[in-house]
């Protein structure tokens, strides 16, 4: 939650502040994505981020529609959380030489952004319902679904090991895979595809043990 520009006395105030917080955040994300796209070492990651940039531009317009429903001008309120998340991603991009590791870092940084957005939209939707702002709900829900889908796609990219030689690993099971050879990575991947989710998890923890 950002620096409050006015006192918050009610859930309505909190909701309005939340809209301004996420409006600021979405605009910062629009500004930050081009550098991530440019720096991303992998075509699939670049294309995924490019698609999400277009979605994010739509999300900004969607929030402007919400402000309009409240007869308000769209206004952002500084969100230190998103500034920090973006700054951290930016620092990372300037500090990783190895391209595979860079890809892993960019995916994780992008997921940190999505997770922030998911928490914010989740709360805003609940508050909109509670406050009776029925027309806001579908607009905010559409955006929340895009954020969730983007997060899922990023997880899938990480799990498909677009960065097989990374020293850090990216997602769940990364440490186990780091120790494994690339050919056993492929075997493990095919086991994960064919096996059940629970079975796959058991195998992953067995490898870690
Ligand atoms: Fe915030
Ligand atoms: Fe967004
Ligand atoms: Fe997003």
Summarize this entry quickly.
The chain is mainly alpha-helical. It has helices at residues 11-39, 43-69, 80-93, 99-131, 136-159, 174-179, 182-194, 197-208.
Could you explain the architecture of this structure?
The chain has 209 residues and is an all-alpha fold. It has helices spanning 11-39, 43-69, 80-93, 99-131, 136-159, 174-179, 182-194, 197-208. The protein has eight helices and no strands. Helix 1 (11-39) runs antiparallel to helix 2 and helix 4 (99-131) runs antiparallel to helix 5 (136-159).
CATH A-level architecture of the largest domain: Up-down Bundle
Task: Please tell me what the overall shape is.
Answer: elongated
| Number of continuous helical runs | 8
CATH superfamily heading of the largest domain: Ferritin, core subunit, four-helix bundle
Q: What is the CATH T-level topology of the largest domain?
A: Ferritin
Our count of domains comes out at: 2
* End-to-end gap: 40 Å
Please report which band the strand proportion falls in: under 5%, 5-15%, 15-25%, 25-35%, 35-45% or over 45%: under 5%
The pLDDT mean sits at 83
**Order of SSEs:** HHHHHHHH
Number of strands: 0
Structural class call reads: mainly alpha
Keywords:
209 residues, binds fe (iii) ion, mainly alpha, 2 domains, 76% helix
Please give the structural blueprint.
Layout: H1 11-39, H2 43-69, H3 80-93, H4 99-131, H5 136-159, H6 174-179, H7 182-194, H8 197-208
Residues 26, 29, 56, 59, 117, 147 line the site of one fe (iii) ion (FE).
């Amino acid at each position: 939650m950002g620096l409050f520009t006015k006192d918050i006395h009610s859930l309505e105030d909190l909701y309005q502040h939340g809209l301004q917080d996420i409006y600021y955040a979405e605009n910062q994300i629009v500004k930050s994505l081009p550098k991530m796209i440019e720096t991303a070492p992998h075509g699939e990651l670049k294309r995924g981020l490019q698609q999400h940039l277009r979605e994010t531009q739509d999300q900004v317009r969607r929030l402007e529609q919400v402000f309009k429903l409240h007869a308000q001008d769209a206004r952002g309120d500084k969100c230190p959380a998103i500034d920090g998340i973006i700054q951290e991603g930016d620092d990372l991009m300037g500090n990783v030489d190895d391209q595979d590791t860079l890809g892993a870092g960019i995916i994780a940084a992008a997921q940190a952004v999505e997770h922030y957005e998911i928490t914010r939209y989740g709360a805003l939707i609940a508050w909109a319902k509670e406050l009776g702002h029925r027309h806001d709900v579908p607009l905010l829900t559409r955006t929340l679904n895009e954020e969730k889908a983007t997060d899922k796609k990023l997880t899938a990219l990480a799990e498909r090991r677009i960065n097989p030689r990374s020293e850090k690993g990216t997602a769940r099971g990364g440490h186990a895979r780091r120790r494994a050879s690339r050919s056993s990575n492929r075997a493990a991947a095919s086991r994960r595809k064919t096996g059940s989710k629970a079975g796959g998890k058991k195998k992953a923890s067995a490898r870690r043990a």
